[in-house]
Amino acid sequence: MIPFKTIRERALQLQPARYWIATGIFATSILVIVPLLNAVPGPSSPFHFPDYLLPLLGKFLCYAILALALDLVWGFTGILSLGHGLFFALGGYAMGMYLMRSIKGEGVYRSELPDFMVFLDWKKLPWYWHGFGNFNFALAMAVLVPGLVAFAFGYFAFRSRVRGVYLSIVTQALTYAAMLLFFQNATGFGGNNGLTDFKRILGYSLHDPSTKLTLYVISGMALLFVYLLCRYVVASKLGRVLTAIRDAELKVRFCGYQAAHYKLFVWTLSAMLCGLAGALYVPQVGIINPSEMQPSNSIEMAIWVAVGGRGTLVGPVAGAWLINGTKSWLTTAFPSAWLYVLGTLFVVITLFIPDGLVGISTAIRNRLSARIRA
Amino acid sequence: MIDSSAAGALIKPDRQPASVRAGIDSEPDLGSSPRAARPGLALWVENVTVSFSGFLALDDITLTIDKGELRCIIGPNGAGKTTLMDVITGRTRPTTGSVYLESRAIEVTALPEWRIAQIGVGRKFQRPTVFHGHTVEENLELAIASNKGVFRTLFHRRTANERERIERALETIGLKDAKSKRAGLLSHGHKQWLEIGMLLVQQPKVLLVDEPVAGMSQQEMEKTAELLSGLAGEQTVIVVEHDMDFVRSIARTVTVLHEGRVLAEGSMEAIQKDPRVIEVYLGA
Fold it and tell me: What's the total number of domains in chain A?
């Protein structure tokens, strides 16, 4: 039995008390209040949270996980990845494959094979589709495959000390190459249409509001878990080594740390978290296709992190929500304006507010406390 | 004590024939190995040549340093001082030749940088290099000698022993009051000391210090001289420095490099009287 005092002490090592309060408020609103507002008041009540918004909110929760994952490598370790969309998409495809397999005979062609395979006149399942009929296997693959790809890539990149803008360009090329590969029908992932038309997950219909609510709540719990995991990593001594690598990698090596191993660890972890986000994303949006691997998607993720504030964890989550919220609104209200707004926002933030949203709030707090003291 | 170490360093290392050398790694027979024959050597640089596309930064250099010695290496710009440091720490691979630690026990030139650092070669850079985003205390914590594997570090909790070592180092470098300050906010001189403090807790066997007093005030310089002299004895300290007053104040043995070779070696007085040294360096 660990005494309460130790638990408290360790909790405060992870994040300060006011952060815990904020985490609690967020967790309650996401995991308790929204589900209650969705379930309890009738559809006509003004307090009712509409069903159609649940997948949208769930999508945002997945983006927040992505932002956290990217912040680990970019904000804390200084590795700017412009290819994290690849890991996200791989996780999404793994889950998509399970969802395709569980359509069974309900597809257009009433075949045991996914529709696109029937369309391509394939007679049997390709070998790499085996096992994906099992949910747990697919979920494990959604995390392991991105992790493995990231590990293999990182092993060679970090060992040969590829870094900075060169590494960013290579990650960009990697996701682009993967996109071209997945566009091919022969690759066996549905070509440019991707995987879609999903019917059910673990036997529950995806169109059922209660399934939507469940997926949303699971995404919220996943975000909370990933956030605390990231906090644990950055608050550990390893986290301090990562920041030291960002600030002075050579010195880290001369202190006796094998910097490449540390980078590889955080890089792989980050990719696995992206895979998890992808796996949660796909059943909620109902489709995964190669456009998720577009370089522009990965760049947009970097913008979320930059806008929110690198190396703060909280900032990137806020950035992801702010930008995607604006995007959802603008793309319906003024469809042509969105890219200009995004571009302007990015330029303004990097030029004038390098620490992002969190930087602004810190500056305001400092000014206030200075005024109080004066 | 000063005289004996100076005299010891003046003796040229007797080179082993290649056949004997080849046999050492395969047969760790202490009786006949040079490890027993030459006890007390901290560092042995043997016939090291570094060629940067034809330009010889180090030209067949051989250098031995006794355990516990405080050695100064001086020389004009481009003499190869920094390259020598790079070779010893594994940053640059020699074109030919080898570097050994602990007489012949460890061949440094076969190992990666982080491994050399773990075995016990510490290095202080010319420009003070500390981790700017971390506090003074965290800087020391990162440098402290411990298991530096990824997962060990992830689950590491600071031990009482480590806390004590950090406290002691803070006291030695006189930054106790600044321990919670971010290192990036320290003055230039304080950064230099913090870096020396980081090397203290890293507990290297051999400590390489590159221009420690560049940009320091007279008072800071004296304090640094005191710090480094205090280290020698338990640790082996090699200082590369331009400031002759500083070298005079700490040096027991001085090695003069010139164009990638050892030009002269001996006590400061002997060096200063050497006509070749006067010609290339002190006279200029």
Answer: 1
Q: Is residue A106 part of a domain?
A: yes
Residue numbers in B near A241 (CB within 8 A) = 142, 153
Tokens of B92: 């640059």
For residue A143, give the 3-state DSSP assignment: helix
ipTM rounded to 2 decimals: 0.87
Which of chain B's residues have a Cβ under 8 Å away from the Cβ of A258?
A: 112, 114, 148, 150
pLDDT tens-digit map of A290-340 = 999 999 999 999 999 999 999 999 999 999 999 999 999 998 888 888 889
| Residue of chain A minimizing CA distance to B117 | A256
Domain contains A327: no
Measuring CA to CA, which residue among A230, A241, A242 is closest to residue A273? A230
Q: What single string gives the DSSP state of each residue in B103-132?
A: TTTEEGGGS-HHHHHHHTEEEE-SS----T
Q: What is the pTM of this model?
A: 0.87
Task: Find the chain A residues whose C-beta atoms sit closer than 8 A to any C-beta of B.
Answer: 233, 236-238, 240-241, 243-244, 246-248, 250-259, 261-262, 265
Q: Do A255 and B198 touch (CB under 8 A)?
A: yes
Q: How does pLDDT run across B136-184, given as a tens digit for each residue?
A: 999 999 999 888 999 999 999 889 999 999 999 999 888 999 999 999 9
